[in-house]
Amino acid sequence: MNFHTVEKIGGTSMSDYVAVRDNIILKPVHNESIYNRVFVVSAYGGITDLLLEHKKNGQAGVYAEFANSLNDDSWKEAMEKLKQEIFSINQQLFNDKKMLKLANNFIGERLEDAERVLADLQRLCQHGHFALDMHLATVREMLASIGEAHSAWNTAALLKKDKINAHYVDLTGWQTDKHMKLDERIDKAFAKIDLSKELPIVTGYAHSDDGLMSTFDRGYSEMTFSRIAVLTNANEAIIHKEFHLSSADPRLVGEENAVPIGRTNYDVADQLANLGMEAIHPKAAKGLRQNNIPLRVRNTFEPEHAGTLITGDYISSKPCVEIIAGCKHVYAFELFDQDMAGNIETYDREILAQIRKNKAHIISKDINANTITHYLTASLKNIRRISEALQEQFPEAEINQQKVAIVSAIGSDMKIPGILARTVSALAEKNISVLAMHQSMRQVDMQFIINEDDYAGAIKNLHRYLVEVHDHGRAICLAS
């Protein structure tokens, strides 16, 4: 193929069609032509939360209600709420009655199909021979696909109305009679598309026989985006978000102090993903990295800004801290047992098995002779399940859990003499106690475990001490 980019548009950006059209579609980063680009779109902001569950607070959507209520119809109420929101979005987007009817018919058929499938499955699983748990992964995949089908179809239709030759590409496998690998589905969809004349608008969800959500869960659209970039041999992958990849959260350090990073590498992107920051899923980044495809993160609402370029080989010209990031609502899960000394492997293996079983995410981990501490993001219910299972396996162990926060200084090269002392001093200045800390020999991040109430103060002071901003809006690296 000729020079082309593969670009992903986030959900918040998708909710503003005019901004997407004017700031992204009509303002290509590299070419004068608006073509030779592929767009992978997320569902509109909030729709996947209504389909599955709220990403941050866990409030149940259709999937969660269905999974937890075999014998009642609470999922139908969630489905009705979803329908109202989807049709409201369509009402706002389509002024033409004919187009509005087409849009409502398209997504309405999928919603009706999904509702019928769930009702049939619910009846089936009320019989003792059929277990609902065996079908939930498929239900989750089916529901997730609706969000991206909705936004992709709408966007393609609106762009055609605006005289752009957009092409709706449906990778959801809806009502497919054949299961196939993800790469095969992508290759088949793009076999007859002429990128020089057509603008593919692709569903962020792609159906595969392995199931994207079983591995990536809510990061599935990033994997679709990555595989399309790799398989089409893209020259650059671009993610359009509603914010810049900045030196810290502007809401905490002030918009006048937080600056776009400009350049960094995939190591830094991995550290951010580990903290739950929405850069790119590590496994999606892996494909881009291995194929030497640079990734650019841009702000939809600042189209003149080049954004942040992420490559595999970038190292800052001077050792420096590029980003201060962190994560709240973390559980420090500690298991102490005197018998652990000399037998750490057995304890570690069993703890990891329970963490994996209960779908908790490990951010960091500490080990000494008789204690293993994991820093986890998970619901309190799942933390308690892990604790109960391990207490049964190790009855003499002392198991504790505590809510904490993690703040991290991150950079592509942080081999700076004295930086640890400087960082601890920055925290001590605000009377912030460090409960634990971690720094690896790779020297790309330092993590500090602190009390949750100290999170905002820690981010602010670390940013003030470790990231300085000059008049040109670039982060100044700390001289060694």
Automatic annotation (TrEMBL):
Residues 407-464 form the Aspartokinase ACT domain. Its EC number is 2.7.2.4. Belongs to the aspartokinase family. Signal peptide: none annotated. The keyword Lyase does not apply. InterPro entries: AceGlu_kinase-like_sf, ACT-like_dom_sf, ACT_Aspartokinase, AK-Ectoine, Asp/Glu/Uridylate_kinase. Residues 5-299 form the Aspartate/glutamate/uridylate kinase domain. It comes from Methylophaga nitratireducenticrescens. It catalyses: L-aspartate + ATP = 4-phospho-L-aspartate + ADP. GO terms for biological process: homoserine biosynthetic process; lysine biosynthetic process via diaminopimelate. The keyword Kinase applies. This is aspartate kinase.
